[in-house]
Specification:
alpha+beta; seven-stranded mixed sheet; 14 strands
Length: about 290
């Protein structure tokens, strides 16, 4: 399938891989281009969503559809045209990138073409397109778009975090501080287990809100939820773009022992368990 929508990139933007060369103007220039690519990927996904889709399964039994592949092609081709010197690591091409090669990357794009394929298959609309720019093992730019819900969250270092609803004007977003009492906890629709139930029991009174894909992070970033604990498996492409949004909105995404969640530091692309939260004054880590 041809990569639709990539013709929108009118210029090539060389991007230095040295973190010290990064500046807010660089990210100001990149953000609209990345948002346009994500919008094109979202359009391709909605075409499949509207007409039905066959589901296949990868070696790890995770599902994949034509929509995943179409979005991957658009984003990968578009990002390479936008910044030819910056590698692209996508969920759909991760097997092609050996750690011996990617460990030398100072900067790279980290892409999940369709986060929440199970939500896509069940047709509840709670899936997203995620694109992050990683520098020095942390996300410095992130775009998270929900094509069905017509929501776009985006952020970059020094530029804050914003949401666009229904194609309207961008609105700045911030985490909620102090946290609500009782706190609002957001959790996965598809991956809830006994370990999360045990944590919630220790937390005490709370409101639980189920949500799919990286939209869970975005609820924290927008101040609609206070805590997202993830005690099941995720991959780095699942989290990076939304982590950029949470952090730019004033929150944090950390491992259970309080260290920031980082990227491309190990051979595995699986994340450790983590927390996303807004109010750092609450001792969320003590729950674990």
């Amino acid at each position: 399938m041809p990569a639709r929508g990539t013709g929108m990139i009118r210029r090539t933007l060389p991007l230095e891989t040295d973190l010290n060369a990064t500046s807010a103007p660089d990210l100001v220039t990149l953000l609209p281009e990345v948002r346009a690519l994500v919008a094109a990927a979202g359009t391709a996904i909605l075409e499949v969503y509207a007409t039905g889709h066959d589901v296949e399964y990868k070696a790890d039994d995770s599902p994949i559809t034509r929509a995943d592949r179409a979005a991957h092609e658009i984003l990968s081709a578009g990002l390479r045209r936008l910044t030819p010197d910056v590698p692209v690591l996508s969920e759909e091409s991760a097997d092609e990138q050996a750690y011996a090669v990617r460990s030398k990357w100072g900067a790279f794009w980290l892409v999940d073409p369709l986060d929440g394929t199970r939500e896509f298959i069940s047709r509840n609309g709670e899936f997203t397109v995620n694109v992050a720019l990683i520098r020095d093992h942390r996300p410095v730019l992130g775009v998270v778009a929900s094509p069905v819900l017509d929501l776009v969250y985006y952020a970059a270092d020094g530029l804050g975090a914003h949401v666009v609803r229904d194609g309207g004007k961008a609105e700045p977003i911030h985490v909620r501080r102090p946290a609500a009492n009782p706190p609002v906890v957001v959790g996965s629709r598809s991956h809830r287990g006994d370990s999360l139930d045990a944590v919630l029991a220790r937390l005490g009174p709370h409101e639980m809100r189920p949500m799919g894909s990286s939209l869970k992070f975005c609820l924290v970033a927008a101040g609609a939820a206070d805590l997202y604990p993830r005690l099941g498996p995720t991959s780095e492409w699942d989290t990076a773009a939304a982590q950029a949004v949470v952090e730019a909105a004033g929150g944090a995404v950390t491992t259970l022992d309080g260290r920031p969640l980082r990227y491309n530091e190990r051979e595995t692309l699986l994340n450790p368990h983590f927390l996303a939260f807004g109010d750092a004054a609450r001792e969320w880590h003590r729950l674990f």
